[in-house]
């Protein structure tokens, strides 16, 4: 049986202010892609709107959650789950806190998630809660992918 990975990448090309570009942080995709390829997974890349995924200009020289995903019983996917994501302190240090549409850290806590973050901003931090695997930031991409492979191998 073929092992498969579906990677969803961003279609967002700018913040609310069109003069502020954003997009896919390239290493988040390439590091994970490499880990999955080495583990023998067939990979498919998709985007929410289909079509192109613009690159984050700063990735050549910020993650997003669908924080309203619900399970079949109507509860939020993140409620009561241990997870991570880009921290508010990282948004401030990256000077995009006034550009991002919401505070991931606060939103996750507000929705009942058990959010954690690494001690050092921009360092690798991965949280595994059952089959939910989350990475804090682009620096976590490789470790997150390795954890996905480990979880899928169980």
UniProtKB/TrEMBL annotation:
InterPro entries: Class_I_gatase-like, Prot/Nucl_acid_deglycase. It comes from the Bacteria. Keywords: Glutamine amidotransferase, Lyase, Stress response. CDD domains: GATase1_Hsp31_like (cd03141). PANTHER family: GLUTATHIONE-INDEPENDENT GLYOXALASE HSP31-RELATED, PROTEIN/NUCLEIC ACID DEGLYCASE DJ-1-RELATED. Belongs to the peptidase C56 family. HSP31-like subfamily. This is Type 1 glutamine amidotransferase domain-containing protein. It comes from [Mycobacterium] vasticus. The lineage of its organism: Bacteria, Bacillati, Actinomycetota, Actinomycetes, Mycobacteriales.
């Amino acid at each position: 049986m073929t092992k498969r990975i579906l990677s969803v990448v961003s279609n967002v090309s700018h913040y609310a202010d069109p003069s502020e570009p954003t997009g896919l942080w390239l290493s988040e995709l390439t590091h994970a892609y490499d880990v999955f390829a080495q583990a023998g997974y067939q990979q498919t890349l998709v985007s929410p709107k289909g079509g192109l995924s613009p690159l984050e200009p700063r990735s050549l020289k910020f993650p997003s959650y669908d924080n309203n995903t619900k399970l079949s019983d109507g509860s939020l996917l993140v409620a009561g789950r241990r997870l991570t994501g880009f921290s508010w302190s990282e948004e401030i240090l990256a000077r995009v806190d006034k550009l991002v549409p919401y505070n991931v850290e606060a939103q996750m806590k507000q929705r009942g998630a058990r959010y954690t973050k690494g001690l050092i901003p921009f360092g690798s931090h991965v949280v595994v809660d059952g089959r939910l695997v989350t990475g804090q930031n682009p620096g976590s991409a490789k470790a997150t992918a390795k954890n996905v492979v480990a979880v899928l191998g169980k």
